[in-house]
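Translate structure to sequence.
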């Protein structure tokens, strides 16, 4: 499990400047940005807040996201 206090302060690194970039925890494994739709994987309880990762999954349907997420490469 990811620390819930950590999840509360995390924001999408792309949207945090202009918008809120609020993230929704999905299936305990992904953080989905409500503003841009980028999706950030949580790998071994560590949220991977890389823009390149968010971009990679942006067009993927939430229901089609792999659980557990693959390691970033
Ligand atoms: Zn965003």
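Result:
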């Amino acid at each position: 499990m990811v620390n819930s206090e950590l999840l509360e302060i995390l924001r999408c690194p792309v949207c945090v400047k202009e918008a809120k970039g609020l993230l929704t925890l999905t299936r305990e494994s992904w953080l989905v940005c409500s503003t841009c739709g980028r999706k950030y994987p949580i790998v071994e309880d560590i949220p991977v807040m890389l823009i390149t990762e968010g971009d990679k999954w942006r067009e993927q349907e939430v229901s089609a996201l792999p659980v557990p997420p693959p390691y970033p490469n």
